[in-house]
Amino acid sequence: MSIFGNRKFVTAVELFGSPIVDLVERSTLDFAGLLRMEKLPSTEELEMLDKVFRIKVLRLLSRDYDVEALALEMDALRRLVPYHRYDELNNCRNEVDGTLWCWSARWRALADLLRMAINLLTYQSKVDVLKISVCQNLLDLIKEAPGSSESNLLAKLQIQEIYFKRYLGLLEANGLIRLSVHGDKKFAYPVDKA
């Protein structure tokens, strides 16, 4: 079975006829058909593909920490260029000014960037965070009174607000608490580990 399943590939006409916001919502592998055609896409088409992939990666990195989405996009970027086209796509000259473009390497670099983000999110040790006494104290306060507001927690800890937000963010990023927003206030809850 093909890695692409029954995928409907994007055509060159769709690439330029669709708004960029629609293209960014498509799966990266939907663009693989363009790279598997007998004739290599034009410089203009490759530049548009590159723009779509860069926007997709930036959007993923700017969202909440969704490791699964990052991993799916990383895998798609790595499988995008067929092996027999890898060198050819790394030696493309711009038809206008002769600039050398290394498309395969650029897209592999985007995949590597996602891999680094995944590593950062996945391998941050919860134990290391809890070695910070303020983080441990903050977590204890949240466990004692689930649903405490940020202002109440800040008053109990008696530290500067900028540091408080940093410690609260560390606990949330490591999956030890979740923040719930009601109006203009945030409330902290411990995360139950099964």
What labels describe this entry?
194 residues, single chain, 58% helix, 11 helices, Arc Repressor Mutant, subunit A, two-stranded antiparallel ribbon
Can you describe this structure?
The structure is a single chain. With 194 residues, this protein is mostly helical. The protein has 2 domains: 112 residues; 64 residues, Orthogonal Bundle (Arc Repressor Mutant, subunit A). The protein is built from 11 helices and 5 strands, in the order ααααααββαααβααββ. The chain has a 3-stranded antiparallel β-sheet with strand order 3-5-4. The protein has a two-stranded antiparallel ribbon with strand order 1-2. Helix 4 packs parallel to helix 7 and helix 9 packs across helix 11. The relative contact order is 0.09.
Secondary-structure map:
Elements: H1 12-17, H2 20-25, H3 32-35, H4 43-62, H5 67-80, H6 86-89, E1 92-93, E2 100-101, H7 103-123, H8 126-130, H9 133-144, E3 148-149, H10 150-157, H11 161-173, E4 177-182, E5 185-190
Antiparallel strand pairs: 1-2, 3-5, 4-5
Helix pairs in contact: 4-5, 4-7, 5-7, 9-11
